[in-house]
Amino acid sequence: MKRLFLTAFLVVLFISNGFADPRVLGFELGKATYSQMAEVLEMKQSPELPGIKADVYSVNPKDTDLKNVERIVALFNKKRVLSAVLMVYPQTCFDSLYREMTAKYKVVYAHLPVVGTKYVRFVDGNTVIILKRPYLKYTTTVIYIRKELMVPPR
């Protein structure tokens, strides 16, 4: 009986974690609301991004436990649910972020030239994660975005 209960518990735990979207800044994309995040993090409204119908907020990086992050932007859909998080790091953080993310997420596309723009796309549940270091720029960008917010290619 104990073995059956333990097996059922592990199956439920595996299934619930297997279909969950990633947690960014301690909040799950697609479930966390603006009010939940505002209780924990200092956020200021920012101008809307062209082509994206979402409320945009800047998050104070000092409120997080992330190392080296320079800027954080959170996007909420019209229902005030977290839909995307953009984080800007120094250029030197690309390799360590890449190693951490490949251990956690499935890589669906990678372009890693010796010289040039480095770009990696990961998928986890209904979320696409993009890691990008543009050539001749001094930043690395990490974007967690729900698939529903993605703009289809033209």
Q: Percent range for helical residues?
A: 10-25%
Just name the CATH architecture.
3-Layer(aba) Sandwich
Total strands: the figure is 10
* CATH fold-level name: Protein Transport Mog1p, Chain A
**Global shape:** globular
Number of domains: 1
3D architecture notes:
With 154 residues, the chain is α+β, with helices and mostly antiparallel strands. It has helices at 2-18, 34-40, 94-104, and strands spanning 23-24, 27-28, 43-46, 55-59, 71-76, 82-90, 106-111, 118-124, 127-133, 139-146. The protein has one domain (21-149): 3-Layer(aba) Sandwich (Protein Transport Mog1p, Chain A). 23% of the residues lie in helices and 36% in strands. Strands 3-4-5-6-10-9-8-7 form an eight-stranded antiparallel β-sheet, covered by helices on one side. It has a two-stranded antiparallel ribbon with strand order 1-2. β1 (23-24) and β2 (27-28) form a beta hairpin. It is globular and about 45 Å long.
